[in-house]
Every structure is written in structure tokens, then in C-alpha cells.
Amino acid sequence: MAKLHLIKLSVGTETIESLRQWQAGKQTQTADGLPRHVTRMWPKRADELLDGGSIFWVFQGMVQCRQRLLRFDEVIGQDGIRRCAFVLDPAIIPTTNALKRPFQGWRYLQPADAPADLPAHRQTEDELPASLSAALADIGVL
């Protein structure tokens, strides 16, 4: 089991499918073709995150999926500022929906607080509308 995870708002994408499409773009990939997310801050607890950790993505106020963290690459922007690229496993794993209030940047997420993966037989289901998913999660059904 992972020692630690990350949680992040998926800014610019509103569904798992739109995240998948965004990550398919060359500008969001490493030289070896893996998806990445570039951020200003470098995690101080990188070793714990790379010991099986994932980044959990929040869409429209709900955690809906995760991707395993593979490594952290240094990226120097055109402005000369050092940034961190979270290099991700291309497999996007749907999770049970969990409500999450808005927050800035990324946060550490303890494994005990992470939503469970959806069972394999449910991973091919169509996504529910965000408002319905939020309402069901709010009353504890999802």
C-alpha cells in the first residue's frame, strides 16, 4: 500500500474523458510519451509518493479518478523558473466519487482518506452528470 498520495483539482477538464484527451496532447507528455502535470512546487515527501502513490483528480467538486505517480522530472520554464513535472502512468483509474471542496494547488492525501477504486465491473459505466453524482455522494449513496 502507498505511504502517501496527492490530490489535485483538474483545472481545464471537467470529466475523466476530457482529462484523457488533454493528456493525449504532445504538450502534456514527457519525451518518453508519458502524461505529465507541471506544477510550481516540488513535493518534499517525494519518496513516500513514489512508493505506490497516486494523484487523485477532482472534477466539479468530486474526486473521480486517480493515476499512479511514476517519477518527478525537473522542468525549466521559458521564464527560467524551475518547476516539477508529475510523470503519470497513462492508465486513469476511476474511483468512487467523493465530495471535495475547492482548494489551491495540490495537497497530500493519506491512503486512509483516499476514495476506493471502482470495481472492475463498474469501470465501463457511463459517467453520471456532475450534479447527480454530487447529490448522491452528499447523501452517502456513492
Automatic annotation (TrEMBL):
Protein name as it appears in the record: Lysophospholipase
Organism: Roseovarius halotolerans
Lineage: Bacteria, Pseudomonadati, Pseudomonadota, Alphaproteobacteria, Rhodobacterales
